[in-house]
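wait is this the right file?? whatever heres the structure
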């Protein structure tokens, strides 16, 4: 098995110590070789694909970046078109599924589980600002202002929460100024006293491994999972992850996640984030078609020692091999707990 990994050192880098440890683990087995292509241009990637001898490609990011690498421009659709043009097998979901999940508003609409929301386009904000502001006067508060097509928590912090309609204009201006390539902002109802869950799903065609993690706030109210909090070491965050033990909640989250995974034609892996209100109703607040293979992805298994972080890349690779129909070295399955192997393979 020859695997090529496309990684980046740019904004929200995927080339890091975690990935390196996963590559080293992958390469420790006979007849398993993972190479890495860092910050490659589309020209370089296409040249490689035209002569590729790799069995599988793993793109670790779905975004295109500014020239200096300091910001996200948009979803990198051309990378996925190249993989399809050259008929290359790759880990993860197809182009149209990535396009859907990269748009928070469309994902919420497709899911049927979204909170009440309103889209503000840059064009409408510039041309008809007063009309947009008038419409926002009727939006039920509190609300949260989110960039619609950026990485999950980018552009979201405590200032994103709107408690007074007079603040909409200032925050919308700030977000459009901070992200010059951003074309839409999502205004969404904000649940202040909700419980947040993140659910990862691994597998294909009805054979799924779920991981449900609950965000436990260290403060009185629901802690906002902002981009800055993701960059903060876990000990200093306003929340911690815990394992959910309520079987009723687990069933509902897993049921919805499986339905959404299949409805949105996802493959191999994904992550869905939910809020549960005081009455137990679940709302989808985000979905990720290419989640990072970090401690949080399979938190329940890694935190209890049943899996090691370095094993995640190989596991996802085996899941993709099974989907594609590539032969799997069954000796590799002995590296994983029987409960995981029985579910996925």
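ok assuming it is, sequence goes like this
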């Amino acid at each position: 098995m020859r695997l090529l990994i496309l990684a980046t050192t740019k904004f929200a880098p995927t080339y890091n110590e975690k990935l390196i440890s996963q590559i080293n683990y992958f390469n420790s087995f006979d007849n398993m070789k993972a190479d890495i292509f860092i910050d490659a241009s589309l020209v370089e990637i296409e040249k490689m694909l035209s002569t590729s001898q790799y069995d599988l490609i793993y793109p670790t990011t779905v975004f295109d970046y500014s020239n200096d690498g300091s910001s996200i421009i948009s979803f990198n659709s051309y990378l996925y078109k190249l993989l399809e043009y050259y008929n290359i097998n790759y880990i993860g979901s197809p182009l149209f599924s990535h396009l859907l999940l990269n748009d928070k508003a469309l994902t919420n609409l497709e899911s049927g589980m979204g909170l009440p929301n309103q889209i503000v386009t840059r064009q409408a904000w510039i041309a008809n600002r007063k009309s947009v502001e008038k419409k926002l006067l009727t939006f039920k508060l509190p609300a949260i202002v989110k960039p619609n097509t950026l990485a999950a928590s980018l552009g979201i912090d405590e200032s994103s929460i709107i408690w007074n309609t007079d603040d909409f204009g200032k925050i919308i201006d700030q977000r459009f100024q901070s992200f010059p390539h951003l074309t839409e902002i999502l205004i969404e109802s904000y649940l202040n006293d909700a419980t947040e869950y993140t659910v990862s799903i691994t597998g294909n065609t009805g054979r799924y491994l779920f991981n449900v993690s609950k965000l436990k706030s260290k403060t009185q109210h629901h802690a906002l999972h902002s981009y800055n909090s993701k960059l903060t070491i876990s000990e200093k965050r306003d929340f911690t992850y815990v394992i959910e033990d309520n079987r009723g909640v687990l069933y509902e989250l897993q049921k919805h996640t499986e339905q959404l995974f299949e409805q949105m034609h996802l493959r191999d892996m994904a992550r869905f984030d939910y809020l549960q209100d005081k009455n137990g109703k679940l709302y989808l607040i985000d979905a990720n078609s290419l989640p990072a293979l970090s401690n949080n992805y399979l938190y329940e298994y890694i935190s209890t020692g049943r899996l090691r972080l370095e094993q995640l890349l190989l596991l996802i690779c085996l899941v993709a091999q099974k989907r594609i129909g590539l032969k799997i070295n069954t000796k590799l399955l002995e590296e994983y707990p029987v409960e995981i192997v029985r579910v996925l393979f």
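DSSP finds 14 helices and 14 strands in the chain. so i think its the right one actually
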